[in-house]
Specification:
Helix content is 51%, strand content 13%. It is α+β, with helices and mostly antiparallel strands and 227 residues long. The protein has a 4-stranded antiparallel β-sheet, with helices on both faces. Helix 1 packs across helix 8 and helix 2 packs across helix 8. The longest helix has 25 residues. The protein is globular and about 55 Å long. 29% of the residues are buried.
């Protein structure tokens, strides 16, 4: 890539990061186009994950009545949920899917990653060692679920950056009661909450008003080099 092209890309990406903020209220009259939202979802689909096992599943909730039920138990989204153009709930896969010996892991290696049998066996063994010894993820269901949630945040960051690059605002939300939200998803969407749990919600749309200037620490305050 030519230097001039690299500089243009860097400028474009940094401009998107400067544009992005946690939008607290959206313009309810402005809707994201189908093509633009497909682009945002594609950014999630193409996101990396540990071992490439994609521990995520995304729900796009547009129904106003269901949104209102969710809003009741989402103190961090009281203004965002009713006004956003698109609301995404990210589910993280629990141990049912993510254990080294699960059918889902076999499916991912065989059908998605197309690995030959000998490579699948080696990868499963390494994944088992990672879960049992390195990160000790099999000590509790919670440990494995929390690890899955970590992976889903990579997709969240990519969705928000992709949106910002085309002038679309977003707001990630963790301010909710997970047990209440899980129950709503079970009761109204048939989500199997023994297999999935909510990692986060994220709202997309167009800002109602401009945010205050972005504040961040300097690089010198957060980075230390060891040459």
């Amino acid at each position: 890539m030519e230097r001039e092209d690299r500089e243009k890309i860097k400028e474009m990406v940094l401009r998107a990061f400067s544009f992005r903020h946690a939008c607290k209220e959206f313009d309810p009259e402005r809707k994201i186009s189908e093509d633009d939202f497909a682009f945002i979802l594609e950014a999630a689909r193409l996101s990396p994950s540990s071992f490439g096992f994609e521990p995520w599943f995304f729900l796009v909730v547009q129904d106003p009545d269901l949104r209102e039920r969710l809003r009741e138990f989402t103190w961090g989204g009281e203004r965002q949920i009713p006004t956003c153009s698109h609301l995404v709930i990210c589910l993280a896969r629990k141990g049912y899917f993510m254990r080294y010996d699960s059918g889902y892991i076999s499916y991912m290696m065989e059908e998605v990653q197309k690995l030959p049998p000998e490579i699948r066996d080696l990868k499963r063994q390494k994944y088992r060692e990672f879960q049992e010894n390195d990160f000790r993820l099999l000590e509790s269901e919670r440990a494995l679920f929390d690890w899955s949630c970590k992976q889903t945040y990579i997709a969240l960051a990519n969705m928000m950056t992709a949106a910002a690059m085309i002038g679309i605002d977003s707001c990630p939300m963790e301010g909710f009661n997970p047990q209440k939200i899980d129950q709503i998803l079970k009761d109204h969407l048939g989500i199997e909450i023994d297999k999935f749990g909510v990692a986060y919600m994220v709202a997309f749309g167009y800002r109602l008003k401009d945010p205050r200037p972005k504040t961040r620490q300097t690089l010198e305050q957060i980075v230390k080099w060891y040459p």
